[in-house]
Amino acid sequence: MSRLVFLIMMVAVLSARAAAATKICSPDGRIVLSVAVSKGKVFYELARDGAAVMKPSALGFVLADGRLDSGFAVAGTDTASHDDTWRQVWGEDEYVRNHYNELTLHLVQKHGKRRRLDIVFRAFDDGIGFRYVIPAQPTVGRIAVKDEVTQFSLAHDAYAWSIPTNRTQYFEGIYTRQRVSDLDTVCTPLTIEYEPGLYMAIHEAALEDYAGINLASRGTTLVTALTPWSDGTKVYASQSMKSPWRIIMMADTPGGLITSRMMLNLNEPCRITDTSWIEPGKYVGIWWSIHKKKNTWEMGPKHGATTANVKRYIDFAARHGFSGVLAEGWNYGWGQGEQLSFLKAYPDFDIAGVADYALGKGLRFIAHMESWGNARLIEEQMDSAFAWYASMGIRVVKTGYVGRLMDGRELSASQYGIRHYRKVVEAAARHHIMIDNHEPAMPTGLQRTYPNLMTQEGVRGQEYNAWDTRGGNPPEHTATLPFTRCLAGPVDFTPAIFNFSEVVEGTHPHSTLAKQLAEFVVLYSPLQMAADEIANYEFHPALSFIESCPTTWSKTVVPNGVIGSYVTIARKERGGDTWFVGSLTGSDSREISLKLDFLDRDAVYEAFVYEDGEGADYQANPYSMGFRQVEVTADSVLSLRLARGGGAAIRIVKVR
After folding, report:
1. Rounded CA gap, 525 and 528, in Å?
2. Is the pLDDT of residue 403 over 50?
3. What are the Cα distances from residue 274, in Å, to 278, 287, 362?
């Protein structure tokens, strides 16, 4: 054999070794993740049940001082496995199993600064996650990420549900279905109907000091498009950096995505030592009346947040088992030319007196801090404001950021915004304050680490059904959200409107009354608002379902559902045996056979069913609602007739 032939053979052998894949599997073996370095670039592939899901997809960065996506050699690998169960302070399930196999790939660039990059992969039964770690090293100074080049290269085209990034403010959009290859740049979670028996959602977890992710379509390959700073840079860091986890949730059914807890498992454990003050609950407030133009935020003849009016809401809340009352517009800054302050109440609102009145009735006043995008003002006043609120017994604060840019220059999902939201949550925790964040970045599971971050908006919510000149949210909207936005975490949608009168002609909730009850269960929030005016609840028989419904659960199951068409979600109360079920549909009526096999065997229950009545229809007859009571067991099947835009809400009580 000639020397030349021998050298060619050796180069071929070394190249093959360089491209050899390292693999890890999910604990159940169904998901296989393969990672390889080929021609200096690192790629991952993904298969499920032996079939390709992701083709070779590139990983890495473009930094201000050079590329960190090529020229790599493998310096080593580490593997590990983990299996434990942890308890949520509140949530859709009380206990969460965290079971995964892990691979850490240690990379070093072969030339130049020989910079190092680690990529950590975790394979769960319900998907995979991976994150980048740039370790501290002498050859790396201050880090400036110009681009993250993570790819998600689908093995074939598929339909996805998305909202476009550039045409959707605050994530308040209608999710639409189109092929991945036809997408614009879109927000995550991006839910993909990959093929029969496989549904996926691409999102991120543990977004703490980084830029929020978007996805841009390049045929059937999705590439990351990070939300930039105003100077165009995506992420700044010192000499080391950890990215959020990039996650691909996978399930046999759409409902399997809803019950995945992988995103939570990829967040850090709770950092709050004493969580006894963190209390889920349901509340009412002067909110819908303002959106319906009956009251105003600013002080004047129709001011909503007056002492007398809020006390009236407190009296109602105390009679009907609510835990709080929200009043927006209690502080200076809503009127023309007023200086915004979170520490100064309008003269017609005695905040200390109202807070004390609420405590005397066994509930709490909920404060509101609308910043109009002035994040710096919140940071300047938050410790003083939170301390003041806490001194009055206020435990929940709703924050808001209405405005195209934070502080006039930065996007809310940029690293600037992410850092701000984190500061607010940490400051609130110091003062035992729970946060309901509006106009947020898309949630990524941080509530595991800081469970005082109770709920967030980031959704086209109920208020559009009050004043949207295009007619409000379509009936399919709430049949889509559980499989899209709600995968990111709790959502402050504000359900349970009982009166569908119109301020804008043709604009009202596109649902029946029974569907409004169902939304209270389906659209999860540990702080759940019954959003209507209290006059519309008083003496209404449907209120009994809201009164009895908890907002934290021991177990959640999804008996059925088709994205954008219908969904049924069943949740078991914590510390008891009662189940609550919400079932709702889009613009088509349908018959649903609901198997109750999630109930305890050998037990007997009484089901209290609130359902669409005779002739119910979201346009022609939204108020028609029936009620029945029936004895059921785990072998029972309930027949539900859902009207157009309709629903059903069920309380199932164990009797023996």
Report:
1. 5
2. yes
3. 9, 32, 22
Phi, psi (degrees; rounded to nearest 5) at 478? -80, -10
For residue 266, the number of C-alpha atoms closer than 13 Å in the C-beta half-sphere is 34
Token pair of 125 as six digits: 């039964």
Q: What CA–CA distance (Å, rounded) separates 455 from 492?
A: 6
User: 133, 241 in Cβ contact below 8 A?
Assistant: yes
- 18: pLDDT confidence band, cut at 50, 70 and 90? very low
pLDDT per residue as tens digits for the range 591-602? 999 999 999 999
Residue 487: helix, strand or coil by DSSP? helix
Q: How far apart are CA 642 and CA 656, in angstroms?
A: 30
Helix, strand, or coil (residue 353): helix
Among 351, 432, 418, 336, smallest CA distance to 390 is for 432
Q: Catalytic residue positions?
A: 463
Instruction: Please report which confidence band the pLDDT of residue 3 belongs to, taking 50, 70 and 90 as the band edges.
Output: very low
Question: If you ran DSSP here, which 8-state letter would residue 158 be given?
Answer: -
Average confidence (pLDDT) over 229-251: 97
The conformational region for residue 596 under phi > 0 = left, psi -120 to 50 = alpha, else beta, is alpha
On the 0-12 / 13-18 / 19+ scale of CB atoms within 10 A, 608 is middle
Mind listing the pLDDT tens digit for each residue in 300-344?
999 999 999 999 999 999 999 999 999 999 999 999 999 999 999
Q: What is the pLDDT of residue 252?
A: 98
* Alpha-carbon dihedral sign for residues 640, 258, 572, 479: negative
Q: What would the pLDDT profile of 625-647 be if each residue is shown by its tens digit? A: 999 999 999 999 999 999 999 99
Give Cβ neighbours of residue 637 (< 8 Å, ≥ 6 apart): 593, 594, 595, 596
What is the reported pTM? 0.96
Tokens, residue 543: 């209120």
Burial (CB count <10 Å: 0-12, 13-18, 19+), residue 296: middle
Classified as helix, coil or strand, 592 is strand
